[in-house]
Amino acid sequence: MPAPSGTLDPLILIAHRADDTGETSIALARELRQVFGPRHVQVAPSPSGDGAGASAADVPPEFAQVAAILERSAVVIVMIGARWLADGEGRRRADLPGDHVRRLCESALNAPAAVIPVYVDGARALRANDFPKAPGLRPLASLEGIEVRRNSWETDIARLRARIVRSGMPEIGSAAATLEAADRLREVLTARPVTPEDLESLFADLRAVHKGYLHVLESLAARVPDAWEEETPRFPRRVREAAAELRRLRLEYAPVRARIAAAAEALPGALLPPPLEAFARAVLRCLPTGELTADEGPDGAAALDGLYAALDGDLSVELAGLVHGTVTFHRRRWADVRERHAALGTG
């Protein structure tokens, strides 16, 4: 399911019971923030009490806050442990109309967001007959869940991550996330006045995009064969596969390159203070482009065209060196962004 329409900043919302899956939920949020960005993952508050004295009409402040977040959520993860349905004394919390987790899940099931049940450490899958007094929760039992276990954490998180991406959330470092960062840069720089808070939020987004893109490049570099493998039978196939991935990235990031070029052209007309303009230029030079690096200057584009043409048929092109060189290039550019950011004195 795609992210809610009109949403510039889609979120992943994690719903949990603190006394059931609290520690696992926090650990999961930490993992997902590294993949989707720190501003894009929220853990719903888990108020104390079970809502036994509340009615469906009572709206606690915590739930009002979560309801606003839910409107922006592309994905809602429902963390389900051994005590999700009932507490340690056997009291069925999901039957209570005032139970905050029940309310959140019922709202999520009626929202555009994709809802993903996550079963923690062997918790059994929900069944429709688990909800005799909560019919609004029954659709939750029909959704495909994902198990997350401590002894297979990395594998399970990878499966969950892939599911979230299929649900419409862009990973940091992806073309979609980079376009969002470019739009965020434009929003911040056209605001009057430009506030330190907005700049710090932008810098956090840019750092996440940079780290995500480095992960993309480093993962690609790990798959590219080294020169010493040239005599092995698998070498031509692996080079062709890596070249195909590089061409795919170049095509995927074409809109990003167009957006960066337009932003750079419009920058002089923004009449920004010199330190802020220097920061903006450094950001535009650092944003991921999906391309291998080439010498800057008027012949840079032609050099890149020639390079990618060579990838189509010339297996002597040393891909590993080119990819590692691109990683180094982006690290240097990010160092320049950090330096320009420090000069703004907002941190």
From TrEMBL:
Species per Swiss-Prot/TrEMBL record: Sphaerisporangium siamense
Name of protein: TIR domain-containing protein
